[in-house]
User: What shape does this take?
Amino acid sequence: MRLPAGALCALCYCLATAARAAEKSPFDPPDVLVNTAGTVRMNCLANLEALLNIAANGIEITGILISAVMLIRAMIRDCNGTTRLKALVVAMLPLVIGLSTPGVMNWLVAAARDANLFSFS
Assistant: This one.
């Protein structure tokens, strides 16, 4: 049985594509590139947002730890009531700043995304 030349080429192409697909990893880039400018931009924004979330969570944890140390030192210190109250108020500032940082950063990223500040086209 003889195959026409076009069918033979199509069969060879299908076999080569199947062999290539079998040895490719799911993490390899696609063979055919399409217009993905919007997708790439959104992924870059997602990476930036993830980095800012990591930084905000680090600031939050640092603020909580600093505030805990300052509160313990304010309670242990030998002083009168007014000075101790001032020390407790000052010790609460890193806690408030640390707890508010993730929300503020998320609000800023959402505002920048909604205002199209990350659109470079």
Q: What stands out?
A: The CA atoms of residues 111 and 117 lie 9 Å apart.
